[in-house]
Write a structure and sequence with these properties.
5-stranded parallel beta sheet, Urease, subunit C, domain 1, 6-stranded mixed beta sheet, alpha/beta, 18 helices, 4 domains, 23 strands, Diaminopimelate Epimerase, Chain A, domain 1, 19% strand, 568 residues
């Protein structure tokens, strides 16, 4: 897929070169051209070099990329950009080789703030047990031993658990008598005392009232930080997959709008409101029009409202994804937790999904376990029976464990599976331990699912995976964790299918296909330029990391947001 493109954005300007541009429309082979013309922020032409260069005028800027490849910019339609920017300011405990080293990092961080300790001073960090030799969570006692006098809150890398010391528990009022909150289950020991662990879809909820406030300035700085990372990865469109999870929807939208207006966020943004925060199960939620009214008018061409977000369960790595059969390593757990658990009362979730569908929402529901996915598909079926909608584009987010009958149900209902291949690269060994090889045969068997007719799109869920789309492609072909043990023997997607899953299919899943995702005249010149033709690299080379593909430049609306020097 060698290609060429220019950075010209003024009306009527054209870019072309003696190389090749590639579009990847759904359901067809790649459409290739020798040159690409852009102007006024949009693609003017893709095709034969002489025909495209014939559009050039005296003001045209020509750029020869000398064998590089241009393709539609990557669409990351399930991510958490604002949260990633906030998390970047926390202590990263995954850099420690073992738990003692992580505890030493915490002690040092506490010492740095102890001199000016106030109620507003916390040590927040993120961790993942799989990064440490012990492979386990720290205990409340261990945290108390190294940091007894500063509130410490650790965020699990999955986003579905938190661990705190006694001072943090005291600040949050988490005692033996404290009730669980929606999406936040307080773990207790044999005597009923909190262990410090909170699990669920919203494990920070008990601490939210007492954590340091996230100011507008903090939010804007977080967006600037992550926008640069997205641009370097070739991402031209991104979704916030849980709007309102950090502060509130209005404040978060204001931060995104300000960043968009000031050029701090060049990516086109889709926001996915967490409707469970905005209405009770027994009342109608806000409509898409209600939420769209919160978006400032002057950014509505760049910030758009997408699907409504819900949760059916938690994560496999924290053993609270909801399974049909017990976890293989469930010995010693409470009887009610052998199969994980739903994030909310199942009947209440079904009612929420029904009301949201009737209100006109596209639905995007987090479901990692097979029991969670089964509940979501049943709820979608009931909602569609009550109010048919041919082009609903309802989604299951993650959809990590789908047995054949669940795949058939998803195909029948035309439900999209929004997948994150990098999850396996980071945590695949844990999945094998939790489920065993017999059950992981139904975890991301891409070839089987695609051949069965399942609609799939790729995304990152960053920062819960590293997030670069090129690494996501590599992970899809590798289908193994750090040890190299594969989850199953599925041959995987074709290279073109993997590229489409990050571009045209992802844009379609976000209802944004009329704007970008393909190299076609009239669509936005949202482009990524790669060092070589990615479709000329075999799946084996992608899987081994021997592909040699790098992002050379990223353009949004024809304007370089990364790698401008490479365009001359």
């Amino acid at each position: 897929m060698a290609g060429s493109a220019g950075a010209a954005a003024a009306r009527g300007r054209v870019a072309g070169a003696a190389s090749r541009a590639v579009a990847l429309p759904a359901g067809s082979a790649a459409t290739r051209g020798r040159a690409l013309a852009i102007g006024a922020g949009r693609i003017l032409a893709v095709g034969d070099e002489d025909a495209v260069l014939g559009l050039a005028g005296t003001a045209t800027r020509l750029v020869d990329l000398d064998g590089a490849a241009v393709m539609p910019g990557f669409q990351d339609q399930h991510a958490h950009p604002l949260f990633e920017g906030i998390r970047a300011g926390w202590l990263d405990l995954t850099t420690a080789p073992d738990l003692p080293a992580a505890l030493r990092l915490l002690a040092k961080a506490a010492a740095d703030v102890r001199g000016s300790i106030e109620m507003e001073t916390w040590v927040e960090a993120w961790y993942h047990p799989s990064a440490w030799r012990e492979g386990r969570h720290p205990t409340r006692n261990e945290l108390d031993r190294v940091v007894p006098d500063v509130p410490v809150l650790l965020h699990h890398g999955s986003g579905h658990a938190s661990m705190a010391n006694s001072m943090a528990l005291a600040y949050a009022g988490i005692t033996a008598g404290r009730e669980d909150l929606p999406g936040a289950v307080i773990e207790r020991d044999e005597s009923g005392e909190p262990t410090g662990m909170v699990r669920g879809s919203d494990p920070v909820a008990p601490y939210a009232p007492v954590l340091p406030a996230l100011t507008p300035e903090t939010l804007r700085a977080a967006i600037r930080r992550i926008a640069a990372r997205l641009s370097a990865a070739g991402v031209t469109a991104v979704a916030d997959a849980h709007l309102g999870s950090l502060v509130d929807p209005v404040s978060e939208l204001a931060a995104y709008a300000g960043a968009t207006l000031d050029g701090d966020l060049p990516q086109r943004l889709t926001v996915m409101p967490g409707l469970a925060r905005l209405s009770r199960p027994d009342e109608d939620p806000p409509t898409p029009i209600d939420i769209e009214a919160l978006v400032p008018p002057d950014v509505r061409d760049r910030v758009r409202v997408g699907p409504a977000k819900f949760f059916a369960d938690g994560a496999l790595s924290t053993a609270d994804a909801w399974l049909r059969e017990p976890y293989r390593d469930a010995a010693g757990r409470e009887p009610g937790l052998l199969r994980g658990r739903p994030a909310h009362d199942p009947d209440a979730l079904v009612e929420r999904l029904r009301r949201a569908h009737l209100a006109g929402w596209q639905l995007a529901t987090h479901a990692i376990g097979d029991a969670g996915a089964a509940l979501v598909l049943d709820a979608y079926r009931a909602a569609l029976a009550a109010s048919p909608r041919p082009d609903h584009r309802h989604r299951i987010e993650h959809a990590m464990l789908l047995e054949p009958e669940l795949v058939r149900a998803a195909v029948e209902l035309d439900v999209i599976a929004m997948l994150q291949p990098e999850f396996v690269a980071v945590t695949g060994d844990v999945y094998l331990e939790r489920l065993g090889p017999e059950r992981t045969r139904d975890m991301y068997p891409y070839r089987r699912w695609i051949d069965a007719g399942l609609r799939v799109a790729f995304s990152s869920d960053r920062p819960f995976s590293p997030g670069a789309p090129l690494d996501g492609i590599r992970a899809a072909f590798r289908l193994s964790g750090p040890s190299g043990r594969r989850l199953n023997d599925d041959p995987g997607p074709t290279v073109d299918e993997a590229l489409r899953a990050w571009t045209v299919d992802a844009a379609w899943a976000a209802r944004d296909e009329a704007h970008a995702g393909r190299l076609e005249p009239g669509l936005a010149a949202d482009l990524v330029i790669l060092s070589a033709d990615p479709s000329a690299i075999t799946a084996d080379r992608w899987g081994s990391g021997d592909d040699g593909i790098e992002v050379v430049a990223t353009l949004v609306g024809g304007v370089p947001v990364f790698g401008a020097d490479a365009l001359g």
